[in-house]
Amino acid sequence: MKKLVNNELLLDCADEMLKEGHSVTIRVAGYSMRPILEHRRDDVTLVKPDLDALSLYDVVLFKLNGRYIMHRIIAIDGDRLTLMGDGNLQGCESCTKADVVGIATKFKRKGKEIDCQSAGFRRYGKVWNALRPIRRWLLYAYRIKLKLIP
Fold first, then answer.
1. What would the pLDDT profile of 48-97 be if each residue is shown by its tens digit?
2. How far does Cα 2 stand from its chain's mean position?
3. Is 114:120 a contact under the CB 8 Å cutoff?
4. Is residue 43 within 8 Å of 80, Cβ to Cβ?
5. Which residues pair with 15 in a beta bridge?
């Protein structure tokens, strides 16, 4: 039996478990990481981050203004991070490394596991970030493929 749980409550519990050193696997809710992750289809496994080892294109769960958000790091300036969801056309978030509560180690997407620390996944993040000027059309084509647009 599947049961829906309030996302903030679930993520508060996940945050506590990550602080204790456990890994946590959660179902993705939201569209900001599309096309790599799909709402209520894919799972992400998170671990407690080594804040000194965070690097470009890591996918992290962070807390900003009381909300949990999972996005990709697109810039690092000392202790400041700039993050953006793969499915976002514009608009970035900014936080400190201390706001990061978890780092993605793997995704389970359509039954297949993706290693978030692999060279191939990092290359994907770098290329996808570089494609921001045409992301609107790429995401539109993706939505047509999913038959979300008639």
1. 999 999 999 999 999 999 999 999 999 999 999 999 999 999 889 999 99
2. 23
3. no
4. no
5. none
Whole-model pTM: value is 0.90
Look up residue 120 and give its two tokens. Answer: 């191939």
Q: Among 48, 99, 112, which Cα is nearest to 71's?
A: 99
Give dist(CA 134, CA 125) in Å, integer. Answer: 15
* Domain residue ranges of the chain, discontinuous segments joined by +: 7-145
d(CA 101, CA 7): 15
List, as one string, the DSSP characters of the chain: ------HHHHHHHHHHHHHTT--EEEE--SSTTTTTS-TTT-EEEEE---GGG--TT-EEEEEETTEEEEEEEEEEETTEEEEE-TT-SS--EEEEGGGEEEEEEEEEETTEEEETTSHHHHHHHHHHHHTGGGHHHHHHHHHHHTT---
Q: Give the class (CATH, top level) of 7-145.
A: mainly beta
Nearest to 109 by CA among 11, 5, 33, 9: 33
Owner of token pair 């953006």: 84
Dihedral of the alpha carbons of 70, 36, 126, 71, in degrees to the nearest 10: -10
pLDDT, one tens digit per residue, over 3-36 is 666 778 889 999 999 999 999 999 999 999 999 9
